[in-house]
Write a structure and sequence with these properties.
single chain, alpha+beta, 2 domains, five-stranded antiparallel beta sheet, two-stranded antiparallel sheet, 9 strands, elongated
Length: 144
């Protein structure tokens, strides 16, 4: 029985008003990480994972937006067919998952470059929103 490491995250919905539990990546025993495309990240689509006790613990652990948890889950026959094809390729929803390139630092640690890029983009977006808000406040003060 194979084990896979699933990364769960509590992310904002497209309207930004509420949160949704998502599966963002899957890692194999040999440390290969695969990204789940955004359109199929909602945990509601991963019915076999919802049934596990690990998911219940993850759900209880994630309280704030953008928090993540990575947990190992044993793949019995049914979940294994959903996430791994007969040749050992990772898949979900009739599509193969893309491997995320990881770089090893001089200290021997593995870094996920795509996650760092996503965090950087969120930081930039947040900074731009703050600038827009300050500009609107400034315009109101000057125009009044």
């Amino acid at each position: 029985m194979e084990q896979l490491r699933f990364e769960f995250a509590l992310l904002p919905t497209s309207d930004g008003k509420s949160n949704i539990y998502c599966v963002t990546s899957i890692t194999t025993k040999d440390q290969k990480m695969f990204a789940i495309p955004e359109e199929i990240q909602s945990v509601g689509l991963h019915k076999e994972l919802i049934k596990t006790s690990a998911y219940n613990k993850v759900k209880n652990s994630l309280k704030k937006r953008y928090q993540t948890r990575k947990v190992w889950i044993k793949m019995s026959d049914e979940p294994s067919k959903i996430y791994v094809d007969e040749d050992g390729n990772l898949q979900f929803g009739e599509q193969f998952l893309e491997e995320i390139e990881q770089k090893v630092t001089s200290g021997g640690q593995v870094t996920d470059t795509q996650s760092l890029e996503k965090l950087f983009l969120k930081l930039i977006e947040g900074t731009q929103e703050i600038k827009k808000t300050k500009f609107k406040i400034y315009c109101r003060e000057v125009c009044d």
